[in-house]
Fold this sequence. Notes:
- The protein has two domains: 2-117, no CATH class; 121-196, CATH 2.40.50.660.
- The protein is built from five helices and seven strands, in the order E-E-H-H-H-H-E-E-E-H-E-E.
- It has helices at 23-54, 60-86, 92-102, 104-117, 165-170; strands at 2-3, 10-11, 125-137, 144-150, 158-162, 176-182, 190-196.
- Helix 2 runs antiparallel to helix 3.
- The longest helix is centred in the N-terminal third of the chain and has 32 residues, at 23-54.
- The mean pLDDT is 92.
- Residues 4, 6-7, 9, 16, 18-19, 21, 26 line the site of zinc ion.
Amino acid sequence: MTRCLDCGSPRTADQCPSCGLTSAAAEVMFRRRLLKRTGVFLAGSLMFPYISQIYPPLDVDLMLVVFGVIFFVALALAVILDRRAHKHQELEVLKHSYAGCILLPWIFAAFLFVNGRLDSPKNVVYHTAIVDGRYNMPGIVRGTRRLIVRSWRSGQNYERLAVDADDYERFQPGDQVNVGVEPGALGIPWYFGIYRR
Ligand SMILES: [Zn+2]
């Protein structure tokens, strides 16, 4: 049994009994919607790394890796959907999986935004640390600059702090610093700032 690409109803003839579209017309409609949804997904995929630099969680790199996996899975789904639509193959399950992926970057971004925005500067806790190293990797949104310090958290060896360009230039390995950390309104500790001791 094949299903209409547009509305998903089962159909026996070329024209869908439910929405009245022919299989060719339904394919065009499906493509159009797929393109729109992919646009929403890509916009969110720029938003998430952007917010993650404004209110960077301490585990920002782990989050970016998880996010990267979701990103490539979703794009692969979009490509498969496009191909299957072209061949008029069954795609109901994939369609729903893709729909589930689309809002994820927006949900991630909103979560980090609320976590940082609703936190009070009064909650900042300062940890003494020594700069151990640093690295700079150019990227799509604003690049990745990290100052590496020994961690004050148990079970964690290093903290890779998501610093801005100024702080990146200001500090060298060996510098004694205080690292400001906020607890996060939603419980995700995030890096607030770094200061010379
Ligand atoms: Zn239909």
